[in-house]
Write a sequence for this structure.
């Protein structure tokens, strides 16, 4: 008899309880590499990513490498990404691969295998995906996640202002596209305890979201804190009672404090404290 791996939702909830919910990005922007005194090439990218992992993987719940910043260096950049994921996981962080993949189902199956099959060199704890070829096109990733104990975060209401023209569009049944993605996720997570493995990406920049049903019984990845202008103090105003399921993401807001490990840790700790205060205030 084969035993199923522990679901991502359970692993994430435990990490949030033990470490706090903060997710820090690993985004080797050219400007950050320069600010850190590194070359804008694959060696600089590797030094950057390794520094973040060494500073933070033993303390934050989630590290989120942004695949685009590694892919820009071609196959050697992807090899750095593979090592980054493996090292971060070995050091105790959950790794959320921010790849925002989405395609027709048969191609989606290949994306799913890339990030969610334990045999893959890019195997991660979870991956971001785009539902804009239709939520149903994500089925191969949703199914593989269930099998491999991994998670999927679906773009619902993104942090960028341009997202509204698609996500606020209203369907024939009167529901917005973003609300429909949230409804699908709620159905996917039904009955899961302590929390489902299917998350939504919902920007912390979006203001009051009380008109949406955010109670999806799954995690809400909230990018936009720091460089995009949102603060941890905004979280309760945006998410209301769902704030306890929020995984707030900060990338440049922490990374700009490098390259020293102590300064990176202190910056992450400041954001973590602010998040803790905001969530406690909502109790
Ligand atoms: O709606 C979204 C979805 C993903 N992101 C990603 O998160 C980080 C944010 O970086 P900051 O430096 O904290 O602004 C980045 O990797 C984005 O691609 C997002 O911002 N919004």
């Amino acid at each position: 008899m084969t035993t199923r791996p522990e679901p991502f939702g359970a692993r994430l909830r435990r990490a949030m309880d033990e470490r706090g919910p903060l997710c820090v990005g690993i985004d080797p922007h050219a400007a950050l590499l320069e600010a850190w005194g590194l070359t804008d090439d694959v060696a600089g990218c590797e030094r950057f990513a390794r520094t973040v992992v060494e500073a933070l993987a033993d303390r934050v719940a989630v590290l989120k490498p942004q695949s685009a910043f590694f892919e820009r260096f071609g196959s050697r950049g992807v090899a750095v990404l593979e090592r980054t994921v493996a090292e971060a996981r070995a050091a105790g962080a959950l790794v959320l691969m921010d790849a925002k993949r989405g395609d027709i189902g048969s191609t989606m199956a290949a994306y799913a295998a890339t990030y969610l099959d334990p045999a893959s060199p890019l195997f991660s704890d979870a991956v971001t995906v785009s539902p804009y070829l239709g939520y149903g096109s994500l089925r191969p990733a949703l199914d593989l996640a269930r099998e491999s104990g991994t998670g999927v975060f679906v773009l619902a209401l993104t942090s960028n202002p341009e997202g509204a023209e698609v996500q606020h569009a209203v369907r024939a049944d009167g529901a917005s596209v973003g609300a429909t993605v949230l409804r699908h996720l709620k159905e996917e997570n039904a009955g899961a305890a302590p929390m489902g493995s299917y998350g939504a990406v919902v920007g912390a920049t979006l203001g009051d979201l009380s008109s949406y049903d955010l109670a999806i019984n799954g995690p809400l990845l909230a990018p936009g804190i720091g460089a995009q202008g949102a603060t941890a103090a905004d979280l309760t105003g945006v998410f209301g009672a769902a704030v306890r399921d929020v995984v707030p993401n900060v990338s440049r807001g922490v990374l700009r404090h490098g390259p020293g490990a102590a300064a990176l840790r202190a910056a992450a700790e400041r954001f973590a404290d602010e998040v803790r205060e905001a969530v406690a205030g909502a109790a």
Q: What stands out?
A: Residues 104 and 134 are 9 Å apart (CA to CA). The chain has one domain: 8-282. The domain at 8-282 is CATH 3.20.20.70 (TIM Barrel). The longest strand covers residues 94-101.
